[in-house]
Amino acid sequence: xxxxxxxxxxxxxxxxxxxxxxxxxxxxxxxxxxxxxxxxxxxxxxxxxxxxxxxxxxxxxxxxxxxxxxxxxxxxxxxxxxxxxxxxxxxxxxxxxxxxxxxxxxxxxxxxxxxxxxxxxxxxxxxxxxxxxxxxxxxxxxxxxxxxxxxxxxxxxxxxxxxxxxxxxxxxx
Length: 173
Prior knowledge:
- By secondary structure, the chain is of the alpha+beta class.
- It has one domain: Gcn5-related N-acetyltransferase (GNAT) (Aminopeptidase, 3-Layer(aba) Sandwich), CATH 3.40.630.30.
- Helix content is 33%, strand content 29%.
- A six-stranded mixed sheet has the order 1-2-5-6-8-7, with helices on both faces. A two-stranded antiparallel sheet has the order 3-4.
- Helix 2 runs antiparallel to helix 3.
- The chain is globular.
């Protein structure tokens, strides 16, 4: 939670936001539900410091943890937006994110490792992953489209902020 808080948009100077940021601070209840579901993967440094984490969650886990207005919008989009010629809600899909990587370990391949680990861990349970990125976060949008291969499918607004709704195949690297 401390790592997420450090990279939360509301806790960063505008100049620090150019390196990417987190749009939502999750509650302790959310983290507990995510960990209990086995959906959080953590990377630690040699001294045991958390260098980064990623969450991949079944929509039902989010419902039990109390979902945010952003997740509610995404669930609505999943019912109408298609990926691979089929509505997302009619496929086995998971929510991906947040992904947080501390600056001290960026550029060492951790993002690619997270992508490989989560594809291996979830491809048997889910066909696709969905995620959101704030429109004012071009660094994260670039990373998710180029390194993850996520496709922007729609935009939506929550609390006067615009977000991209993206999806990617868990089976294809």
